[in-house]
Amino acid sequence: MRIDAHQHFWLLAARQGEWPPPDLGPIYRDFLPPDLQPLLQENGVDGTILVQTLPNAADTDFMLDLAARHGLIRGVVGWTDLKAPDAPQRVQELAARPKLKGLRPMVQAEAADWLDDPAIDPAAEAMAEAGLCFDALVLPQHLPSLHRFARRHPALPIVIDHAAKPEIATGGTPGWAEDMAALAALPNVRCKLSGLLTEAGTRTRIDDIRPYVERLVALFGTGRLIWGSDWPVLRLAGDYTGWLEMCRRLVPADAHDAVFGVNAAAFYRLD
């Protein structure tokens, strides 16, 4: 089985005033399953994890409705306000929805210490009890607090989206490798091999990306690294087939089954 563990669908009509802006032409339109299906078939990808892009319940309902109607979507990572007083109840309700596999707060837009707030802990505990995963959409400055959060919740499976978006375009983020190493030492933390091209600016050759992939493989091993396309955001920097082929060349061949499918299926508890 081959799984794309990170992709998005959206309707612009539901995103007024939200990202993406009109000047991002390659992604400023609706994206729905029929747009992605040919790319999956062309590249031998059997299914996807559909990930939230808006911090509202309507977006999660939209994704779960798509998942109910399109078999290519094997799981959904949704959103709820994890610091709301009724967050644990809401987590339980969402966990009962077919194909809901995880939740993702949009931490990248928050202060560096957002995850240190104890208000998030009841929801995190409810997620662990319900068997849900936590997608960590973070930037390098959030990694120390993510480490503290992961240590507070050792039973909560956590995956770092897009390797925390190191600033490849400017030669890398100081301290990124050390902070990622600290997180990799925690058994409940995994990392997505996704989103690197859109952080690379003009440095999108395979040799520009190689040091980051090799570092991730060294830190997390091939058993805790999960491939994702980040399509259609990927369209800002490359194409689906090119990114997949680059990663196939960079990941050791004997680990392809794990990184491109098995790890995602295990992490998200796919049927």
Please explain how this structure is put together.
- Helices cover 37% and strands 13% of the residues.
- The longest helix has 15 residues.
- It is built from nine helices and eight strands.
- α3 runs parallel beside α4.
- With 271 residues, the chain is of the alpha/beta class.
- The protein has an eight-stranded parallel β-sheet with strand order 1-2-3-4-5-6-7-8.
Most strands sheet: 8 strands, parallel
Query: What is the helix fraction of residues, given as a range?
Result: 25-40%
- Nearest-angstrom radius of gyration? 17 Å
SSE pattern: EHEHEHEHEHEHEHEHH
Strand order of the largest sheet: 1-2-3-4-5-6-7-8
Spans of at least 5 consecutive residues whose pLDDT stays below 50 are none
Tally of DSSP β-strands: 8
Strand content: 5-15%
Structural class: alpha/beta
Report the total helices: 9
Task: Give the averaged pLDDT, no decimals.
Answer: 98
Based on Cα principal axes, name the global outline: globular
**Distance between the first and last residues' Cα:** 11 Å
